[in-house]
Amino acid sequence: MIVYDKKILDNQILVDEADTLFKGGFISKEQKKFIKKELLAFRSQDNILVRIGFFLLGSMLYSSICGAISIVGMNAENAYFQICCYIFAAVGFVGSELLAKQNFHNHGLDDAFILGAILNIGFAIGITTDGYESVIALFMAAASIFMFIRYLHLLSMLVFCLAVTAFLFFQMFEFGDIGRAILPFTAMIFAVIFYFVTKKLINQLIKSYYYNGLLLANSFCLILFYLSCNYMVVRELSEELLGTEVKPGTDIPFAFFFYAFTFVIPTMYLIQALRTKDRIMLWISFLGIGFSIYTIRFYYAVLPIEAALTLGGLILFAIAYFSIRKLKEKESGLTFKPDRINHSDAILNAEALVVASTFGMKPEVKPQDSPMEFGGGGFSGGGSGESF
Questions:
Q1: Where does the pLDDT of residue 350 fall: very low under 50, low under 70, confident under 90, or very high at 90 and above?
Q2: Which of 4, 88, 126, 322 has the fewest beta carbons under 10 Å from its own?
Q3: pTM higher than 0.70, yes or no?
Q4: What are the transmembrane regions (predicted)?
Q5: From CA 337, how far away is CA 236, in angstroms rounded?
Q6: Are 168 and 190 in contact, with CB atoms under 8 Å apart?
Q7: What whole-number distance in Å separates Cα of residue 305 and Cα of residue 115?
């Protein structure tokens, strides 16, 4: 199903690991360049600004192709309007395929055609169904997961997660007020199921081609689970979807559950992240705790904003100071010492080192001379000479 050559995918993994080893100081810059030169890899862009520039160029190219087709098709008037987005989507699929055959991956040009194809699928289905949201979300989810599976496109996985969530929401709206009322609990259950499905798929991976996309979906589930029953989200959506008005002295149904959920879940994320050393969950827990504090302050301003910011800064400073003092001398586990390597995939690191040794490259780090000087001694003596 993957359009790319598996050998190039494996080479790209080794090139990425070579970059990681270079950042960790295990290989030199010349060795990293040598690995990239010897291994055939994708035409990709690591610089996000350059990639955005190529995306804009790709979007202009895509638009010009669609514009040229429209000049010819405008003669059909209304009939062309009904099918034009399908044609534009086909242009996106063809362009994505051609760029993939030329080994463009995460380059910017391929992003424009892949995302353009998904977007035009949504427009086409919207025109055909007169804006039926559930069907639009379903087809966009199908198109985006196809793009991810075939082109290993991370943004397509993000679009898939958003489209599936939108499909769930629109389906719940079909049940009227009952569906809107139970929407937070439905989204919470969906996030839990989706989380364990993606976790199982990650554990069953033989090749790491789909790892980043599944990790993105898994992280999306953590965010969706927290937001599904966050007090502020539930209260604002209740007023928007159900038309309920929370008057002074009253609150939304199950308010205590949503209050507890708002603070308990980020705390659980934090504990689990520290226990499993999961960096992504750790950042999500920090963001969740910050948003939980904002949620309560949005409705209950206990202190003036200046005093609240000052007090919060002092608390954060105290936590950071004592954490650093506690962890700065630890050499393993949870430590304040900087990582030499950002992620610990031992197998891939070993592969990169094997490649380096196969090419005959040797590290240029000179071992430190021992402070203990030994004497003479022939053969294998510990430095003893022949004289007494």
A1: very low
A2: 322
A3: yes
A4: 48-73, 79-100, 112-129, 135-152, 157-173, 179-197, 209-234, 254-271, 280-301, 307-324
A5: 42
A6: yes
A7: 42
In whole angstroms, how far apart are CA 109 and each of 147, 149, 205?
15, 18, 29
| Beta carbons of 137 and 163 less than 8 angstroms apart | yes
Distances (CA, A) of 196 to 146, 191, 192, 199, 215: 21, 9, 6, 5, 12
Render pLDDT for 216-232 as a digit per residue (tens, 0 to 9).
Answer: 999 999 999 999 988 88
Residue labelled with tokens 């904002």: 294
Cα radius of gyration rounded to whole Å, the chain = 28
Burial classification of residue 371, based on how many CB atoms lie within 10 Å of its CB (0-12 exposed, 13-18 middle, 19 or more buried): exposed
pLDDT in tens, 308-330: 778 778 887 887 777 777 766 66
**Is the per-residue pLDDT at 193 higher than 50?**
yes
Written as one letter, the residue type at 131 is G
Confidence class for position 339, pLDDT limits 50, 70, 90: low
Which two structure tokens, joined as six digits, stand for 76? 């059909």
3-state secondary structure the chain: CCCCCHHHHHHHHHHHHHHHHHHCCCCCHHHHHHHHHHCCCCECCCCHHHHHHHHHHHHHHHHHHHHHHHHHHHHHCHHHHHHHHHHHHHHHHHHHHHHHHCCECCCCHHHHHHHHHHHHHHHHHHHHCCCCHHHHHHHHHHHHHHHHHHHCCHHHHHHHHHHHHHHHHHHHHCCCHHHHHCHHHHHHHHHHHHHHHHHHHHHCCCCHHHHHHHHHHHHHHHHHHHHHCCHHHHHHHHHHHHCCCCCCCCCCCCHHHHHHHHHHHHHHHHHHHHHHCCHHHHHHHHHHHHHHHHHHHHHCCCCCHHHHHHHHHHHHHHHHHHHHHHHCCCCCCCCCCCCCCCCCCHHHHHHHHHHHHHCCCCCCCCCCCCCCCCCCCCCCCCCCCCCC
Residues shown for the chain: 388
Question: The tokens of 252 are what?
Answer: 């939304």
**Residue 385 · residue 375 · CB < 8 Å:** yes
| Residue 99: closest CA among 117, 83, 87 | 117
